[in-house]
Amino acid sequence: MVWERKHIEFIYFDEIDYKPLEAKGLPPGLELKILSIDESDGALSGLLRIPPGWQADLDFTFTTPEHLFILQGDLTINGKTLTEQFYSYHPKGASHGNMYSQNGCEAIVMWDAKFSVNINEKGSDEGIIVKDTINMNWEPTIAEGPQAGIMVKMLRFVPDTGEMTFLVGILPNWKETRQRHHACVEESFKIFGDMNLNTNLGDKLLMGERSYFYRPPWIKHGPLYTRKGTMSLVRTSSWLENRYMPLEEDEEYLKFLKEKSPNN
Ligand SMILES: [Fe+2]
Predict the structure, then answer these.
(1) Do 50 and 123 belong to one domain?
(2) Looking at residue 2, what is its pLDDT?
(3) Is 70 exceeded by the pLDDT of residue 27?
(4) What separation in Å is there between the alpha carbon of 178 and the centre of ligand 1?
(5) What is the mean predicted confidence (pLDDT) over 82-96?
(6) Can you give the CATH number for the domain in which 91 is found?
(7) Is 148 exposed, middle or buried (0-12, 13-18, 19+ CB in 10 A)?
(8) Longest dimension (CA), the chain
(9) Cβ-Cβ contacts under 8 Å for 90 (sequence gap 6 or more)
(10) How confident is the model at residue 204 (pLDDT cuts 50, 70, 90)?
């Protein structure tokens, strides 16, 4: 499932190798590295690499909703060219006609179900989001509580569930001395800068560029500190609320524990 994967805290993109992506019906050359996956339904987050000159000059759709964030290069889907730091969202069954990359491309990819291709299916343009994030304005942070110095570019918000996909930018020398937790899943791709997480989960505490975590609810993190400042692509399973109280004082957490208990 999208939101029931195991905790990963954290890995660098380049610790994982690219492997050929099986995309039946499309030209060869696509490569995928998986950063986190739920094997039961194939939902995954990772990186997609497309070689220069790759082209699929036909209509097709994917069997999964897809988020893309271009790290480098270019990718044209259905006449729309995405370049560095473009974000796109294609719902399941959305049109992917005539997809090509002139200079090659590396992109963050999130697929919410098992990936496969429906060749010669025209698909729909409904619900497709394309955002040139470099040219978006930063907005004040949506989540209350943290120290000033955090700004957000909202890329996708689902009112029914509160699910959010956004860029978060944080100023150099930003510091948060408190520990926080959330009731939602938080996954994050660090694109620029650094963040000291202090999750006390090992000795790899300083998260640098091209790294990723998938954090289930109720994991305390902090104190937090960034030296150079940072920008990350973040997705959450519901509205992101920062909670600073001890876990045992969070009523929702206690309810969660009770529901999980075998004696319940
Ligand atoms: Fe967090």
Answers:
(1) yes
(2) 79
(3) yes
(4) 12
(5) 96
(6) 2.60.120.10
(7) exposed
(8) 59
(9) 62, 65, 66, 68, 77, 96, 127, 128
(10) low
* Whether the predicted pLDDT of 22 surpasses 80: yes
Tell whether 203 and 232 lie within a shared domain: yes
Tell me the CA–centroid distance for residue 220 and ligand 1, in Å. 8
Domain end (from 109, 133, 157) = 133
CA of 210 to the centre of ligand 1 (A): 18
**Count of domains forming the chain:** 2
Question: How many angstroms separate the alpha carbon of residue 219 from the centre of ligand 1?
Answer: 9
Measure 221 CA to ligand 1 centroid, in angstroms: 7
- Average the pLDDT over 54-73 and give the result: 96
CB neighbours (10 Å) of residue 50? Answer: 23
> Which residues lie across from 236 on neighbouring strands?
164, 186
Q: Which two tokens stand for residue 225?
A: 């500190």
Asked whether residue 140 falls in the same domain as residue 235, the answer is yes
* Global model pTM greater than 0.70: yes
